[in-house]
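chain below, 244 aa
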Amino acid sequence: MPARRRVLTYGCCSEPYPDVTFTLLLRRRAAAYVCNLLLPCVLISLLAPLAFHLPADSGEKVSLGVTVLLALTVFQLLLAESMPPAESVPLIGKYYMATMTMVTFSTALTILIMNLHYCGPSARPVPAWARTLLLGRLARGLCVRERGEPCGQSRPLESPPSPQPPDGGARPPAIPCREPQCLCRQEALLRHVATIANTFHSHRAAQRRHEDWKRLARVMDRFFLGIFFSMALVMSLLVLVQAL
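prediction:
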């Protein structure tokens, strides 16, 4: 509350007329809002990116995002009750809206990543560009690896096995065999063995496709974890610096 004293002399009067001007500087104390509304929101917003770190088989990825969104909605209602109505949105209100938007996008991306994870064996193979860019370069950059695989090295890409002919590729011998118990005379048995081998190879190829989609989902989880965690941290630090 600075004060300024002035002494004025008017032409009609010989005596001076002093006056004192006080300037009142009003500032709202932000400690109560920081402790009761801002810090809980910061901690909850830092929990939202951890949905990308949960394994998809746990079944709690979407539940965590929805729980964080409900918690932010409750704090938003408390904020609306404590703040006076005005045309301009305060800083803490902008932070709540930005955080809820980020949590909504992270929950939607989590649902898409779970769809990638649960692609069954009947799904089509991973596209070539995704295999090269995501499973190759991005996986090495984010250190997404299989068990026992060193960081920075990706698993070699395997080509699907070529189908075997129905007769197992067996050729008749040049000299006919005269033994009745020889396997060359068991054509039906050889066909059944070839069918079982082809079925096994098809099952292995389907399992490899399923593992590729699961690995792609893990790469996308790690990528969006870094992006959303950085966004939440930067927004929280900016708001705390401006509030304090």
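Residues 31-131+219-243 form a domain with the Methane Monooxygenase Hydroxylase; Chain G, domain 1 fold (CATH 1.20.58.390). Residues 85 and 230 are 32 Å apart (CA to CA).
thats it, cya
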